[in-house]
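User: Show me a protein chain along with its predicted structure.
Assistant: Here is one chain, sequence first, then structure tokens.
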Amino acid sequence: MYINLQLMHLGPVNEVVVENEDGGYTVFIDDQLSDEGKKKAYRHALRHIEADDFSKHGDVGRIELEAHTKEPRQG
């Protein structure tokens, strides 16, 4: 799996994750965030990827809550 990281102005959201056709992911992070904010947004995106949230159906609020409480794997 690969992750393509793009910095751009996103407005009201910190990050957006897109699953690519080839199985990789593109993570868009708001370029207006501080360096620490960008790191936090990237870690949040990783939690969604590692939890395979893109294949889940159901309550988006619950999925977001789980992503905010899990730590990403190191490596």
